[in-house]
Design brief:
With 396 residues, the protein is an alpha/beta fold. 42% of the residues lie in helices and 14% in strands. The structure holds pyridoxal-5'-phosphate.
Amino acid sequence: MTDHLNPYFELVAGAMTPFVGFFTSSAYSRRAGEPGISDFVAGNPQEMAVPGFVDALRKWIEPQDKDWFAYKRSEPVATQAVAATLRQVIGLEFEPDDIAMTKGASTAIAMILRTVVGPTDEVIYITPPWFFYEGMIRYNGAEPVKVPMDRETFDIDVEAIAAAITPRTRALILNTPHNPTGKIYTPARLARLAEVLTAASEKNGRPIFIISDEPYNRIIFDGNEFHSPTEFYPNTFLVYSYGKTLLTPGMRLGYIAMPPSMPDRERLRIAFLVTAMAGGYGVPDAVMQYATPDLEKVSIDIPHLQRKRDRLVEALTEMGYETHTPEATFYLMVKAPVEDDIAFTEKLAEHDVFVLPGVAVEMPGYFRLSCTASDAMIDNAIPGFQAAMEEVKAGV
Ligand code: PLP
């Protein structure tokens, strides 16, 4: 059987095992969607979509000409809206032609890897990572190189990244604000990283790219400031998804943006078109693209998300759980009170509380909560978190 598969497939499947295992053979896999459970597992909506989202789709589904639903490339109406936002927020002169619209961030990352990374290359990523980086890198036959985050601050450890660079290093995937820690990487470390990558690219005789995975760059708490790696390093691809800000990840929309500082942009524009086509048509649906200018103005209620974060941090800390206060994103990492995070996840499930075990994000001994759970789910979960902690303390 195996010899019928893509030679890289076993490696891809191996990388995906903790994640796939959880979604196919845990209490969650059997009980997801049941009424009355508290679902903190993924960044999924647990309430109805924001009205502005539905209004935009309703407005743009109505065809205005015969080509309305024809094959689409990146639509100018979408790329112009994206470039305008990026110019305003980042302060760099992004051009609409340097924006490739994609089916969310996953497609964008896969397209960049397919376009610039080959089988003899290495791609560095920070661990704990988003679940699919390793599998995506392996699909290209390239070698993933994991560099741990700075455990004290959750920031990037620039010296560790420098030590991991070799002549084969082709790209570094950065995710800021970071899933699962909610950390916003600091400008000081990003600036230092840019120096390291510039020197290493020169030494290697080819650029090392940053793939800047930023789907949470508008989900920022406490008045914190976000800085994109594009501000610091020219060879950076900015990846964005609307699935987080709108909390509609099933409606696929995102983009790759190249800053004006990116060398060889004209060639890369064509390259992304080729990759979108040859890679299974990763271009978003026409209606999502027409709606992009309207969707740019819509967001979930971030202060409400922040209040849910505060409530969870406070309640869990009071119960004796070790946790932290995320600066951004949906997520909160909590130390499991027993070593085996899968066992503890299953224990919480007995109390109708569902969380993601840390092994799924390369953080064994922890579990991850998504604050996208509703207020009612949080109300219902608090006694369950308490009971599970008491059972651990009582040695049950
Ligand atoms: N990158 C990170 C860090 C994420 O957390 C996610 C989604 O959870 C993605 C990429 C994928 O986003 P999309 O659903 O737009 O493909």
